[in-house]
Amino acid sequence: MINQRELELLGSALQKLEEGTSDLPEFTPTFDTKRAAGVLTEVAERMQDNFPYFHPQYAGQMLKPPHPVARMAYALSLWVNPNNHALDGGRASSAMEKECIVELGRVFGWDQPLGHLAGGGTMANLEALWVAGRLQPGKKIIASTQAHYTHGRITEVLGIPFAGVPVDTRGRMDVVAIERMLAGGDVGTVVVTIGNTGLGAVDPLADLLALRERYDFRIHADAAYGGYFGLAAELDSEPKRHYDRLSDVDSIVIDPHKHGLQPYGCGCILFRDPSVGTLYQHDSPYTYFSSGDMHLGEITLECSRAGASAVALWATHRLLPPVPDGEFAQGLDSCLRAARMLWRDLHNSSLFTPMMPPELDIVVYAVNAETTTAVSARAREVFDKAAERELHLALIEIPSDLFATYAPDVAVDSETVVCLRSTLMKPEHEEWLERLTALLEASAE
Predict the structure, then answer these.
(1) What strands lie across the sheet with 394-399, from one edge to the other?
(2) What pLDDT does residue 55 have?
(3) Which residues of the chain have pLDDT under 50?
(4) 217 vs 213: CA distance, rounded Å
(5) Measured between alpha carbons, how far is 284 from 297 in angstroms, rounded to an integer?
(6) Same-domain status, 436 and 335
């Protein structure tokens, strides 16, 4: 878990950082090192009560460990503790953030998007939907019933009408249902989820863009989880068809703290049209006078924001540029292959029934039983037994009609079914898959 070389590299970098303040009079803050050591020991002991998120045998929730360079750069920046609201609080880290925004924009084919980092996908999506509401006042926002639950919560906070769109058997928004809703004339924005967090499904963006030729609405892409997969070489043709059209949406959210190898929290909102920045205009009597350049606080709803997030992301981009065919993209391909291999193994198993084939790196599967109630009970049982073997999975509750598509012989006696869910988001999962599958099979016997 702890690589001592990281501590050595961080120490060397801190010495270099200190050189930047060598002209100042000597000043070293003091603290009680003995008491602090005791507190840190207690913290370390308390933190032992965690799942091993860093290990390949953790394949449950969307928790991808940060890259060592991101971890070290984040820690390094804390000795400065920059605030990227204004240049007064973070000149270097603000410049780094602006460079990161350009690089993330290029992932989606945008050269000069308006955007910034945020505390996470929820705050980034809030900004996207706030802008949508300002540009389409009084109109409804719609999203998949498999979209992240925060869209319904955000629109409630913003006072914007919201409706869910039913999904097809692959967990994607139903285009026919969307057109019926658009025909009513009261829909202002459609949220397209590029990799929903439950099933990993990619909504049919290309088909929605065709509808936009006939109806007046904005498209916001919630690519918080799946956005980076546009760099992968091994996407199947159907999701790739939609990824290839992301440059045509109005706004995009991506979370570098998911597949971007960053510490929490690091989300990002991007707008194709920089003129939406005028919606953020506000006055501050003291904040924006250190420079005539744009301060990031002038285009955000958040005020104080950790500059450390920008420093960590910038360092990661320097080491692993987010470009097709690079080392970073190859890691994403490894995750895709691992998910397909697991789905195949489950398909050939007598103990499990996989649901829809994975479009990204999430696999949902049932433990075989005669009724849906029994399937749910078995899923919880295997979940616990796998954890005893240090294989950590997740549970997901899906509608029974969706489940029946893939397990038609199971008697339906409940409205929903609990299934197992594996998120294979570590590149190491591909080489560990045989071991993980063996542990899974043993947990179900």
Answers:
(1) 352-354, 362-367, 416-423, 394-399
(2) 96
(3) none
(4) 9
(5) 10
(6) yes
User: Residue 295's pLDDT is what?
Assistant: 78
Q: 346 to each of 195, 330, 364, how far by Cα in Å? A: 21, 25, 10
Strand order through the sheet with 187-193: 114-118, 267-271, 251-254, 218-222, 187-193, 140-144, 162-165
**What's the pLDDT at 282?**
65
Category of 422 on φ-ψ map: left (φ > 0), alpha (ψ -120 to 50) or beta: beta
Backbone dihedral region for residue 261 (phi beyond 0: left; psi -120 to 50: alpha; all else: beta):
left
pLDDT at 362: 98
SS3 content of the chain, % helix, strand, coil (to 5): 45, 15, 40
Residues 277, 344: one domain? Answer: no
CB 391 within 8 Å of CB 342 = no
pLDDT for position 303: 86
CA 33 to chain CA centroid, Å, is: 38
Domain count, the chain: 2
Q: What sign does the dihedral 71-76-81-86 (CA atoms) show? A: negative
Report CA 328 to chain centroid distance, whole Å: 16
State whether 311 and 337 are in the same domain: no
Q: What is the pLDDT of residue 231?
A: 98
45-85 per-position pLDDT tens digit:
999 999 999 999 999 999 999 999 999 999 999 999 999 98
Find the domain containing 416 and state its range: 327-444
Which H helix or E strand runs over 35? helix 33-47
Q: Which residues contact 99 (CB under 8 A, 6 or more apart)?
A: 314, 317
CA distances from 247 to 63, 147, 190, 322 (A): 27, 21, 16, 16
Amino acid at site 289: F
What local confidence, expressed as pLDDT, does residue 86 receive?
A: 85
Q: What is the pLDDT of residue 1?
A: 80
In a domain, 17, yes or no: no
Instruction: Examine residue 182 and state whether it is found in any structural domain, yes or no.
Output: yes
Q: Are 117 and 91 in contact (CB under 8 A)?
A: no
**Distance (Å, whole) CA 332 – CA 229:** 7
Which amino acid type is present at position 250? D
pTM higher than the cut 0.85: yes
pLDDT score for 283:
62
Final residue before a domain boundary, out of 264, 297, 319: 319
CATH number of the domain where residue 379 is located = 3.90.1150.170
pLDDT at 291: 59
